[in-house]
Amino acid sequence: MKLIDRNFDKDGSGQVTLLPEDPEDMWHAFNLVAVGDSLRSTTIRKVQNESATGSVSSSKIRTTLTISIETIDFDTQACVLRVKGRNIQENQYVKMGAYHTLDLELNRKFTLAKECWDAIAIDRIEQACDIEKKADVAALVMQEGLAHLCLLTGSMTVVRAKIETNIPRKRRGNCEQHDKGLGRFYESVMQAILRHVNFEIVKCVLVASPGFVKDQFCEYMFSQAIKTDCKIITENKSKFLLVHASSGFKHSLKEVLQDPSVTAKLADTKAAGEVKSLEQFYIMLQHEPDRAYYGIKHVERASESEAIETLLISDRLFRAQDVATRRRYVALVEKVKDLGGDVKIFSSLHVSGEQLDQLTGVAAILRFPIPEIDEEDATDSDDD
Fold this sequence. Notes:
- The protein is an alpha+beta fold.
- It contains 13 helices and 16 strands.
- It has a seven-stranded antiparallel β-sheet with strand order 1-2-7-3-4-5-6. The protein has a five-stranded mixed β-sheet with strand order 10-9-8-11-12, sandwiched between helices.
- A hairpin with a 5-residue loop joins strand 3 and strand 4.
- Helix 1 runs antiparallel to helix 2.
- The longest helix has 21 residues.
């Protein structure tokens, strides 16, 4: 997603102009638009013209409309977002108050205005516009003297660094210059990884090369990390996956991603953090039920006691048409973050999100047990 313009007022109202660039962006747009917002975009409208003789002719005109959103429909297969509403700005082809449906598509910019931009919506924009926040896989394709470091999202590959180093050839009886050149090259590649790979987001780093270059590089990198006490590398050692590639050029990434062992690994990376959190919740629910709660009432009571360690919440809840309901969930998320808790927002398109939706869409793992919540419920039911 490309952020073209952003204008927020002190009272929280404002507008943003965005340009969706890949299918993932349409999902972000679907989570941003809400009933009551105003949306401005180009569209095609059928217009009827009456001539002086009384004959009527119709033609299709491309125009720009601003509508007040009433209904939203997202086609996950075609990645098209259809938004219906009434026209709220004068237009020579469309009357004020007339209904129209805007189709938001890839590479067609739109302007979205809200009366109140909450923290969740602003985070969603930053997540959609920051490539590094979307990329949970990094790939390094290399050969002696050449390396490409790429970040992979669901539908695109971005080259973050290209490293080229002239390495002297091995000479009979003297490999010193070759080894020095190779050391300089490996050091440059290691620095590029530290500079461009955010290990809090990236779940897997593919290291691909012909021959044993990848093995020699990883051996060098891990030994240097131990020598220099570089904890970023040593703590994330398990995220590095070594695979074969025919060269160090970007095009060889295609064959790397087709490797069965890689596809199996990448299938788990997309929402690995969320899946792990949900698994921890189920384990906690089984072994320590007083530290695991679901349902908005129970979770809010746990939040009031400042007990939430990890909040699991579905993005479906933020699409609630009732403003008060949405604000309730936004306030819960903000409170948990303010108290140092971890918030995991699950995509309802993912399997883990569907599982969470079956548990009302909101759940929490607590720092300490609170049996009183169940006791309060039991007391309330006895009173009834």
